[in-house]
Structures are given as C-alpha cells and as structure tokens.
Write a structure and sequence with these properties.
By secondary structure, this protein is an alpha/beta fold. It contains 6 helices and 9 strands, in the order E-H-E-H-E-H-E-H-E-H-E-E-E-E-H. The strands form 2 sheets. The protein has a 5-stranded parallel sheet with strand order 2-1-3-4-5, sandwiched between helices. A hairpin with a 4-residue loop joins strand 7 (133-136) and strand 8. The chain is globular, with a radius of gyration of 17 Å.
C-alpha cells in the first residue's frame, strides 16, 4: 500500500516534496492532475491524499468532492490559494486539513504523521459499539438500534471518531 498520493502539477515542487517525504520514510506516488488521481485511487489504496487545488482540467476541490463520495481516505489540501473562502470550501468538501504554500517540509511531514496516526488508531478495531450504535468499519456500515444508517464518507468517519472516543470531550 502506498502511504501518500501526491497530486501536484508543478513538477519541480512535486519532486522536492516526494524526495523529502521519501527521506522521511513515506512511500509516495505522484500524479499531475485530477483525472490521474481519481484513476489511481480507483485501482490502488492509499493512506493519505496530498492534494493541490490549482490543477489543469479538474481542480482539487472537484477531486476532493469526488473522492469523498466513495472513500474515507484522509485528504490534506496544500495550496497557494490563501483565501478564507477557499479554505472553508476545502473543509466543507471533506478535507482534513488545508496547508498554505509555501510549506515547511518538516511541518508537512509532522501533519502527515499526525493524520496517519489518528486514522490508523481508528482502524485498529473492526467493529465498535456504544449506546446502541454499532459500526462495522471494514464494510463502512453503521447501525442505530439495529437499523442501518445512510451516511456519506465524512459522516461515517466522524461517527466512528465519536463512538471510538465515547465518554471523552472532543
């Protein structure tokens, strides 16, 4: 399994990021566009998507939205677009974080490690339950009092986080 799929159209920047992340122990695959990212994700499981916004043909927001329709993979947006509305849009579409370029490679690696640690902790137990809620992680199904819930990927991820931390303030 690849740790990180990097979607970045600026080749030199992508090479630097890939080099740094590989030196930090990550397995990274790089693609230059949104269509290539969606195609790769349809065939290969990744642990995290590192996504630029300004891409040719299909912007990163569209990629984020399409990924969220089918997958709960963590998404870190990395963009030169610093506008508050762009950041809000990224979060509303399901991004886990929004990192402004230029990015400090050490901070980027630390954020990636934190997200991967949190998500790997969440996926350790296959079935969890609390207060009448049962979550089957592998099947991406959740039940309340035996009734199947209709949840999108982000809702499922959030419910899993809450049930996994029952009794804690989050």
């Amino acid at each position: 399994m690849i740790d990180i799929l990097l979607v970045e159209d600026h080749r030199e920047l992508a090479q630097l990021i890939v080099s740094f992340l590989k030196r930090d122990g990550f397995q990274v695959h790089h693609v230059e566009g949104g269509e290539a990212a969606l195609s790769y994700l349809a065939q290969t499981e990744v642990r995290l998507l590192l996504l630029d916004i300004m891409l040719p043909h299909m912007d990163g927001f569209t990629v984020c939205k399409k990924v969220r329709e089918h997958k709960a993979v963590p998404i870190l947006i990395m963009s030169a677009r610093k506008d508050r509305n762009d950041q809000l849009n990224g979060y509303e579409l399901g991004a886990d974080d929004y990192i402004e370029k230029p990015v400090d490679p050490q901070i980027l690696a630390a954020k990636i490690r934190a997200v991967l640690q949190r998500t790997s902790d969440l996926h350790r137990k296959e079935t969890i339950s609390c207060c009448g809620v049962v979550i089957e992680r592998a099947q991406h199904r959740a039940f309340v009092d035996g009734n199947l819930m209709e949840l999108n990927a982000k809702e499922f991820e959030l419910l899993t986080l809450l049930v996994s931390n029952a009794g804690k303030t989050l």
